[in-house]
Amino acid sequence: MLVELKAVSRVLAIHLAQMMTYLKLSGRHVGLLLNSHVLRVRDRIHRYVRELPG
């Protein structure tokens, strides 16, 4: 699992693309993006899954 920490007002599409690139380059399939710049805990955690080949 890959964990990325951010402090942004909103998670944008560029952050998703960045996470998918990190997952691909590291050979991992699951990543968590933790954003510390929002009030609700529910909005802080974003889980991304890269599909397995084949």
Summarize the structure in words.
The protein has 54 residues and is α+β, with helices and mostly antiparallel strands. It has one domain. Helices cover 26% and strands 30% of the residues. The chain is built from one helix and three strands, in the order E-H-E-E. It has one helix at 13-26; strands spanning 2-6, 30-35, 45-49. A three-stranded mixed β-sheet has the order 1-2-3, with helices on one face. Helix 1 (13-26) links the parallel strand 1 and strand 2. The longest helix has 14 residues, at 13-26. The two termini are 20 Å apart. 6% of the residues are buried.
TL;DR of this structure?
This protein has one helix spanning 13-26, and strands at residues 2-6, 30-35, 45-49.
Mean pLDDT: 92
User: How many beta-strand elements?
Assistant: 3
How many separate structural domains?
Answer: 1
Sheet with most strands: strand arrangement? 1-2-3
Class derived from helix and strand content? alpha+beta
Helices and strands, in N-to-C order?
Answer: EHEE
> How large, in whole angstroms, is the Cα Rg?
11 Å
**Oligomeric description of these chains:** single chain
Q: Which stretches are low in confidence, meaning pLDDT under 50 for 5 or more residues running? A: none
Distinct helical segment count:
1
Q: How many strands, which pairing sense, and closed or not: the largest β-sheet?
A: 3 strands, mixed
**Cα distance spanning the termini:** 20 Å
- β-strand amount: 25-35%
What is the helix content? 25-40%
Global morphology: elongated
Question: How are the secondary structure elements laid out?
Answer:
Elements: E1 2-6, H1 13-26, E2 30-35, E3 45-49
Parallel strand pairs: 1-2
Antiparallel strand pairs: 2-3
